[in-house]
Amino acid sequence: MIRFRKLVLYGIGIIAVLVIIFAFQVVYFGESSKPQKSDCIVILGCKVYGSTPSPFLAWRTDEGLKLFKEGYANYIIVSGGKGEGENISEAEAMKRYLVHKGVDASKVIIEDKSATTMANLINSKNIMEKRQFKTAIIVSNKYHLKRASLMAKDQGINASYSGVFVTPYKSNEIIGYIREVPALIKYYGLKVYSKMF
């Protein structure tokens, strides 16, 4: 019985250490990522309220707009399909937002078939190849960047990263960080499993 308890405590300790390590990776990557001049900016989708970008999506889009205006890239790929409760795709909502802010519509490329981050990146990579774009800046919330970077690497995307922290919604951001830790662990686990089998 005592041995069993020791094993349980040992297991809990290992899990706690892993959680701390992955949490550090999520936070550090999000805070330390810096954009580099690239062929395009890829903005990952997020919720749309009807036809209006949610605050998270608006902040991501504003970040992409800032990078575009500062000359980091000449094109923006807006990536995201149409989800439940959305009147238009996330990509279309972002394009309308950017054009309203003065961006030439020809500079905004829509990818509106994706429902997941992996699909965002796969479909954006296909657009990059067709356009002969070699490099990209991937934009999302800071807590999302580490996992997005692993997926981008798996797809062979040569990318730098730029993240946002939506300060008026700190509680939502904190929840995002908390959820991202098990999501990252799951991603690593699936990669290990796929290599084994």
TrEMBL record:
Keyword Transmembrane helix among record annotations: yes
Pfam family, one: DUF218
GO cellular component labels: plasma membrane
Annotated transmembrane regions: 7-30
Entries under CDD domains matching the protein: YdcF-like
Gene3D superfamilies xrefs: HUPs
Domain of life: Bacteria
Keyword set, alphabetical order: Membrane, Transmembrane, Transmembrane helix
DUF218 domain mapped to chain residues: 39-169
One GO-annotated biological process of the protein: Gram-negative-bacterium-type cell wall biogenesis
Name of this protein: YdcF family protein
